[in-house]
Every structure is written in structure tokens, then in C-alpha cells.
Amino acid sequence: xxxxxxxPIFKQNFRLLPIYKAISFNKVxxxxxxxxxxxxxxxxxxxxxxxxxxxxxxxxxxxxDSVANEVIxxxxxxxxxxxxxxxxxxxxxxxxxxxxxxxxLLEILEDRDDRLKFxxxxxEGYFNFDYNxxxxxxxxxxIDIDAVYAFDNxxxxxxxxGQLKPNILxxxxxxxxxxxxxxxxxREGIVDDMNNWxxxxxFCDYHIFSKFLKNSAPKIKREYFHEFGEYLKxxxxxxxxxxxxxxVNHGFSGNKHKLILDxxxxxxxxxxxxxxxxxxxxx
Length: 283
What we know:
By secondary structure, the protein is α+β, with helices and mostly antiparallel strands.
């Protein structure tokens, strides 16, 4: 097992993701991006709840480790006090399959990976963040835009961009981050490559909050990234191990796990450098 050296514990979260059995099909979210997730009623601790369930193809999981990205993205966001929906692993077992009468739905499932699925609790009454509907002051009341920006850069997620893929659901003054399947875009050697701290602009220039941050007044800009840096400095990376082990125990590859841990350790050990780089991208 990969063990990170003893770091100060800032937050602890050793709970595994719950595993819920699917009970019945509700609908397909046709505007849910490349995967067109399903809304499925699940047995969540003897309570029936609707969950949005991602149906990844096996080749996508092998190529991008999509399920692990979703799990670790969800878990890490909470370590930085960022709001995400409750997550679970969903079992579409034979009993659930027997409830499907639509041949097209059965064919979709036949074409998808047959392991546990990543799911998140359906947020009723929430809608996609509209970039053009808010000014800087309004959006800062809804969510910490600097923290979201730094988080997506930390996990190397270029998918929360512009008006096309906000991946933020809002209602009134509440917001939740969703969709981290394209995060952790890491390759072998990335830790050594980061020694020069030349940042990949794909993760910052097109971020949905980039213009808000850049257009902030100097006084406001000076406030950005301090809190995120503290969370990163005291991040207990060992908190991720139970989730990695859970994924491996359910048949998912662990080949990328050490790379993620090494990369996050590098960022943690250089938290002030990381926040300085973040600040340089919005000047």
C-alpha cells in the first residue's frame, strides 16, 4: 500500500462510498453531456432516493479511469469545503435489469461497463449555472470562485469551462459542483515535469470563473487563494486510500492511483508555490 508520510491532519474523512442497489429506472438526462446519465431510484439505506448514474463504456474507464476520477473528485472537493452532491456506487443488479421493459435501454446497458456505477444524489430544482446571468458580486455570494478555480487546476480538470460545460448546478444562493470524470489528466513523469512550475493554460484560461477572477479589483484579488492554500497545506492525502482500495476491491484498476497520490503530494508540499502560480494566472 502506498503510504504518505505523516502530515498534520486538517480534516478526516475515512468513510467509504455507500453501495446502493438500483430499484427502478426514471429517465435519461439527454442533456447530460457525453454519457447521458440515467436517473435511477435507489435503495439508500432503506430510503428510496433518485440518483444520477453515469454509464461509462469500458474503454472510457480504461482510457481515463472515469469512475475513479468521479469518486476522488467528489471526495477531494469536500476536503476543500467545496459543495458536491452525495455520491455512491450503484449496483444495477439482475433484479433491476428485470424491471426494464424497454429494449433500447437494455441495449444501452449491454454496451456499457458492467461494474458498479458512479452515482450522485439528484438535486431537485437546480439548474445549470448561466455564465451570462451573474456579475462578480452575485457569483461570489453563491460560491467561492477562487476555490473552484484552484481546485479544478489542482485536479487538472479542463471540463468546467465557459458557457458550454459549466458543471455547476445552482438554486438561489446555493451551488454544487458536478462531473469530474475528465479530471486528473496526468501522465507518467508529470511530477518531475512540475519542477519548473510551468502551468498548462488549458486548466485556467478557459475556466468558467477565469474572467471573473481576472476582472476582480486588486483589493479583492489579494484575498484569493489564501484559504485554499491552507486546505492544501494540511490536506491528509491518506484520506484517499480507503476510496482507492474500495475501487480496486470492486474490480477497477489501481494503476493510476500512485501517480495521483504522488502528484497531490507534490502540490501539498509546495502549497504556497501552487497558490502563487494560481495568482499569476489571473493577473
